[in-house]
Specification:
about 100 residues; Serum Albumin, Chain A, Domain 1; elongated; about 85% helix; mainly alpha
């Protein structure tokens, strides 16, 4: 059985609302930030942004952001992705098994 896009969006909004209401969103966000910092990902991204800005004329925040976005998304360590995904899956499972 296939769900329509609007059903999936509604489900996403509901899960997101529940995560915010019980503090799980902030807890996972803090953990994600810590893990990315520990892995050096944050420093690497900052270094790339600085290097890009040094060679850019004229300097453009939007251009730097676009250049970094792809790298940022693809360079998140697999272990961090897995850990955060597991936490989100556990939360969803707990919410909908009640």
């Amino acid at each position: 059985m296939s769900q329509s896009t609007s059903e999936i969006e509604i489900l996403y909004v509901e899960v997101h609302r529940r995560m915010i209401e019980n503090g799980e969103w902030d807890r996972i966000l803090h953990l994600l930030s810590s893990k990315l910092s520990e892995s050096g990902w944050t420093d690497d991204l900052l270094h790339r942004a600085k290097e890009n800005s040094r060679t850019m004329d004229p300097l453009s925040f939007q251009t730097i952001l676009q250049e970094l976005l792809s790298h940022a998304q693809t360079s998140v360590p697999l272990s961090v992705k897995r850990e955060i995904t597991i936490l989100i899956k556990q939360f969803v499972k707990e919410q909908f098994e009640k």
